[in-house]
Amino acid sequence: MPLNSVIREKRKEAGLTQEEMADYLGVSAPAVSKWEKGSTSPDITLLPALARLLKIDINTLLCFDTEPDKEEVSQICNEIMDVIHKKGFETGFLLTMEKIREYPTCGHFVHTAAVLLDGAMLMTAMSPGDKMKYSSQIMSLYEQAAKYGDEQTRRQANFMLASYYTRMGETNKAQKLLDLLPEQSAIDKRPLLAEILITQGKTEKAGELLERRLLMAVQEIQVLLMKLSDIALKEGHSQDTTKISERSAKLAELFCLQEYDTYVAPLQTAIDQKNVSGSITLLNSMLTSLIHLGELDNSFLYRHIPMPRQTKDIRKKMIKVILSELEDSDKYSYLYSNEEFGELIKRFQSV
Predict the structure, then answer these.
(1) pLDDT level of residue 70 (50, 70, 90 thresholds)
(2) Which residues have CB under 8 Å from 314's CB, separation 6+?
């Protein structure tokens, strides 16, 4: 609760008017009114007397002992996402850091905010330098969350840090963090919850619960297949790499993922093999599919999952991010001298 709200509520609980409080503290009634509106704050020398008058300690007055509950965390994060959408990532990032300074020891909030920024950064085209700067600060937030969060938050934050270290090639640090995590996760209670919801006639909620689990499982399998494809390539089994990527594409089609998802694994294989013509063909198909990006809830498998309706904005952002990656990442350098690749970049920049 902000300082102005504490002053207002505790004054009312004490049965004092603004004028009476002003008299006790030797200030004007308009000054007290401004405190309660949040436009100004009491002078630091008045805080002890103000706390005694309101019959609370300094910590309570300054909100040192209070943390946002889950509903408040959700409200703050919605506000941040709205700012990012309307004013850009930088403004949203600064707002996030401002909010975290208010609740620096609330591990759940710090972790939730870090995950939010992580996701928003993926959807924002930025230079490698900016991405490195923000990634470093987001990693610090995960460390902060791991320090102050409960057991579940610590595990989640350490997992995210391990993911960062793995991408950075610092595998020893990643391994140490992963060693802190339990070998087996908790029993998945969602199928049982869905069964209970079905018996209660709440089929919409049950459907959404199971569909989200199915979608997550398919995406997890896609990641595993891409890792296996990478191993096959490193071991010199290029034919196995191609077969695995083909199965990944079929899996995406079988489980009604976006057309975009059917190109991810084959493209990764083409990139690993530095297959110029194959890479350009797949990139063209992938980017074209984003122009016609549909809604998952049009599928019979995911019709209970509410989907965001800003499809046009999402696809533009995804195309912009992919183009930025194509131009900045060294892994695409084998394409830079190809004229057809340059034409592809120009064509989709105008979308």
Answers:
(1) confident
(2) 123, 293, 308
Instruction: Tell me which architecture the domain covering 70-179 has in CATH.
Output: Alpha Horseshoe (1.25)
Confidence of residue 311 (pLDDT cuts 50, 70, 90): low
**Could you tell me the pLDDT band of residue 92, with boundaries at 50, 70 and 90?**
very high
Domain locations along the chain: 3-61, 70-179, 190-349
Please name the amino acid found at residue 205: K
Cα–Cα distance between 150 and 249 in angstroms, integer? Answer: 39
pTM above 0.85, yes or no: no
Domain 3-61 has what CATH class? Answer: mainly alpha
pLDDT value for 190: 80
Residues in Cβ contact with 228 at an 8 Å cutoff, skipping those fewer than 6 apart: 244
The first and second tokens of residue 262, run together, are 């059917």
How far apart CA 15 and CA 11 sit, in angstroms, is 6
pLDDT computed for residue 295 by the predictor: 60
In this predicted structure, the answer to whether residue 126 has a pLDDT above a threshold of 90 is no
- SS3 per-residue string spanning the chain: CCHHHHHHHHHHHCCCCHHHHHHHHCCCHHHHHHHHHCCCCCCHHHHHHHHHHHCCCHHHHCCCCCCCCHHHHHHHHHHHHHHHHHHCHHHHHHHHHHHHHHCCCCHHHHHHHHHHHHHHHHCCCCCHHHHHHHHHHHHHHHHHHHHHCCHHHHHHHHHHHHHHHHHCCCHHHHHHHHHCCCCCCCCCCHHHHHHHHHHCCCHHHHHHHHHHHHHHHHHHHHHHHHHHHHHHHHCCCHHHHHHHHHHHHHHHHHCCCCHHHHHHHHHHHHHHCCCHHHHHHHHHHHHHHHHCCCCHHHCCCCCCCCCCCCHHHHHHHHHHHHHHHHHHCHHHHHHCCCHHHHHHHHHHHCC
* pLDDT greater than 60 at residue 61: yes
Whether the per-residue pLDDT at 161 is higher than 90: the answer is yes
